[in-house]
Amino acid sequence: AVVSTQSTGEVFPGEITLIIGSARVHEGLGDLDTSVKFYKKVFNYDASCVEAIACIGTHNFYSDMPEIALRSFRRLLQMGVGNTELYNNIALCCFYAQQYDMSLTCFERALNLAHKENTADVWYNIGHVAVGIGDSNLAYQAFQLALISDNNHAEAYNNLAVLEMRKGKVEQARAYFLSAISINQELYEAHYNLSILSEGQGDLNTSFKEVRKSLEAFPEHVDSKNLLAQLKQYFTLL
């Protein structure tokens, strides 16, 4: 696909569809830097391409540049694009840029525009922000509302379990972790958290099994690597 779009792009260098196609292919391959270069190239021919602006904004957000990402998302608002996902992204950018009042306002707007398919994600992000500001009660309620909207929201189960674990409700936390894992086997956070919980309860075999699953899902997770090394040391001493 890369060769095909590249060779065709040489014949039609100004064709926006081909440039966007190349960006999507590289994004699908995980080559985000190259993908962003193609999206930026789109601006040479169409400065109002919604997909290019949105993707560059998202890339900047995940590159720890929320203020710059906010410029892209606000530009989309000025262009008349106003949907749940956009206001949700703006709210997260505002939160990480420490504009807390604006963050809550944007979340409220996102909820007003939300449909059944995306309401859970908005509540989940509200819960995530609540955890960040230390409001455990709001976080707990937001994650529960996320599950009411979508009972298969694995991340919400995982975060609820963490809150329950902080309260000392071990069995309830374990049940939530297992629910998250049953929904999404690739959710490394749930495996890691369940491993921590099991290790704290002295169940080293379960802890070892879960931390290995965490590393299978995300081999570069440092905390899982450290826990695995610690567990191996325990077993060596035994």
Main beta sheet: none
N→C terminal distance: 53 Å
Q: Report the uncertain regions.
A: none
Q: Structural class, from secondary structure content?
A: mainly alpha
Number of strands: 0
Q: Radius of gyration in whole Å, from Cα?
A: 21 Å
Strand content is: under 5%
How many helices in DSSP terms?
Answer: 14
| Spatial shape | globular
Give the SSE string.
Answer: HHHHHHHHHHHHHH
Mean pLDDT: 91
Q: How much helicity do the residues have? A: over 70%
Which secondary structure elements does this structure contain, and how are they paired or packed?
Layout: H1 2-11, H2 16-28, H3 32-42, H4 50-62, H5 66-78, H6 84-96, H7 100-113, H8 119-132, H9 136-149, H10 154-166, H11 170-183, H12 188-200, H13 204-217, H14 222-237
Helix pairs in contact: 1-2, 2-3, 3-4, 4-5, 5-6, 6-7, 6-8, 7-8, 8-9, 9-10, 10-11, 10-12, 11-12, 12-13, 13-14
Describe it.
Helix 11 (170-183) runs antiparallel to helix 12. The chain is mostly helical and 238 residues long. It has 14 helices and no strands. The mean pLDDT is 91. The chain has helices spanning 2-11, 16-28, 32-42, 50-62, 66-78, 84-96, 100-113, 119-132, 136-149, 154-166, 170-183, 188-200, 204-217, 222-237. It is 78% helix and 0% strand.
Give the key terms.
mainly alpha, globular, 0% strand, 238 residues, single chain
